[in-house]
What we know:
The chain is of the alpha/beta class and 318 residues long. The protein has 3 domains: 3-83, Arc Repressor Mutant, subunit A (Orthogonal Bundle), CATH 1.10.10.10; 91-159 and 266-317, Periplasmic binding protein-like II (D-Maltodextrin-Binding Protein, domain 2), CATH 3.40.190.10; 162-262, D-Maltodextrin-Binding Protein, domain 2, CATH 3.40.190.290. 41% of the residues lie in helices and 25% in strands. The two termini are 31 Å apart. Residues 306-313 have low confidence and may be disordered.
Amino acid sequence: MDAQSLVLLAEIVEAGNLSLAARRLKMSRANVSYHLAQLEKSMGQELLRRTTRRLEPTEVGYRLYEHGCVIREELMAAQESLASLGSSLHGQVRLSIPTGFGSLVMSDWLIAFKRLYPGIVLNLLFENRVDDLLRDEVDIAVRVMSEPPQQLVAVELSPVRYSVCASVEYASQHGMPVELDDLRRYPIITSNVIGRDLRLSAYQGGNRCEVVLHPTLATENFQFLRKAILAGLGVGLVPDYVIDRDVAAGTVVTALTSWRLSVFGTRMYLLRMPGRYQTLAVRTLIDYVVERAREWSRARVRTANPAAVDTSAGNDRQ
């Protein structure tokens, strides 16, 4: 048993199969299989067992996996330390961000980050899937959800509020919802709900209600949703950051403001894998995004209620 074999075992466990591990390690599948067999032979017992979907470590395999992770992190830290001598911060970060919040809010943050750290390569994915971190090489994901997945490390960034809204022209011609059930009578513009009805959860005091809606226009492109709302195509049900500027400009009005609404969740989280080594570039971006998001959240609280005390963010959950 040697250190490199333990690192290889860690890669196989995280990949879940030999083929993906081989691609990540830039080795042939046969070579990876050979080294795994040699490690199991030296230990005298099975380290991985195959389930219907992936390779899972045995009890002994999991203990060796943990040691492999430590060795891998020490090697990567040493390489990073040597590479950074006498140079500016550099490295690569693969960041997955929501299509709406990413393009409408985070894009300005990330452009500013690149100006601060031109040596860091950012690979951005604009998507809303929750399982991104379980796929290839995603270092960080930002997601809106009710509760973060238990297997991930989560840092809460901000609450998310949804708005029922419409253009001034549409509201003057058709009116606006006064009760929750009124939403059923309006053409709803919102983000995608694939293969199921849209179930809107609404909270007021200690009460919770649910309304099933059938959107007439749905997409993950939030800039298009904003244009559709401004064009008077119906009543929007979108995160309030989508139409904040339009509300301030007086071109969009809101309704049902006494209700706290939720479609896909009321909290925004930064997510990462618990056992994955974080380079200095990744750690720097995490700190930057957390700070900017919490500043953004506090500013919105002050704008909505100057006397409010911010208790919205600051929780890390592993």
